[in-house]
Amino acid sequence: MSTVLRIDNLVKRFGGVLATDKACLDVSEGDIHALIGPNGAGKTTLIHQLSGALVPTSGHIFFQGENVTGSSIDKRARQGLVRSYQITSIFKPFSVHQNLTIAIQGRTRETLGMWRRASYVQTRLEEAEQLAIRVGLGSKLGQSAAMLSHGEQRQLEVGLALAMRPKMLLLDEPMAGMGHEESGQLVELLLGLKRSVTILLVEHDMDAVFKVADRISTLVFGRVIATGTPDEIRRHPEVRKAYLGDEFEEVAA
Ligand SMILES: Nc1ncnc2c1ncn2[C@@H]1O[C@H](COP(=O)(O)OP(=O)(O)OP(=O)(O)O)[C@@H](O)[C@H]1O
């Protein structure tokens, strides 16, 4: 499988704090690649650098072979590297359908005003409906986003990101604050996206990670200490020592 994203010796310093320490990582096309590690390991800092929100101190990021290290968030998103933002990107008073339609407009940079042909508007509305179905919100089309549960709002955020038709999605702790049932729904959603979009997933919910991930990388003190299949990571002595703990193998197997 071809490499969609390559992180090459990435370094990010915040004053005296080395948040990313010569991190190297390859993400293969179509994979759900999880990034795990203890609190403060530098996972979010890495995602920020990949989305373009933070400029690395040194090193390179290649997306589909192109050096995007200095590219803006907008440019990366147009190239297909999209981060799903949490809650803030949702227009709470608007319905699920309206939110998704607006996100599609954001991609096309066109308005749905009166001068548009009805068939064009209809196409956008139908695309929004299909997106809602894809993220498990087909029955909530007319519901205002404010009335959705926490888990459903997260599903909508994934839908908003998918409206950009990304090649690769960056998800930062999508299961945070979710109960068992809600995270189960998001797991199903992610499994449904598998192969159609490459996903880099930062997540602390190890049940979810080990259910969805094709590959897992472990970050400790800003460094990628191991990358492998879920089985390889589950048994990796350094990963168990730094993060998973010895009891994990029995729980997750
Ligand atoms: N803007 C900043 N200024 C200074 N230090 C920062 C900044 N952002 C992050 N850090 C530091 O960088 C390190 C990595 O933080 P980061 O939030 O990326 O870790 P994380 O793995 O995402 O943690 P968590 O799992 O708790 O979310 C930490 O020591 C943190 O305090």
Automatic annotation (TrEMBL):
Q: Which residues form a coiled coil?
A: none
Query: Domain ABC transporter spans what residues?
Result: 5-246
Q: Write the record's keywords in alphabetical order, separated by commas.
A: ATP-binding, Cell membrane, Membrane, Nucleotide-binding, Transport
Gene3D superfamilies attached to this UniProt entry: P-loop containing nucleotide triphosphate hydrolases (3.40.50.300)
Q: Which GO terms describe its molecular function?
A: ATP binding; ATP hydrolysis activity
One Gene Ontology CC term in the entry: plasma membrane
Q: Does the keyword Transport apply?
A: yes
Q: Which SMART domains match?
A: AAA
Which Pfam families does the record match to this protein? Answer: ABC_tran, BCA_ABC_TP_C
Name of the featured protein: Branched-chain amino acid transport system ATP-binding protein
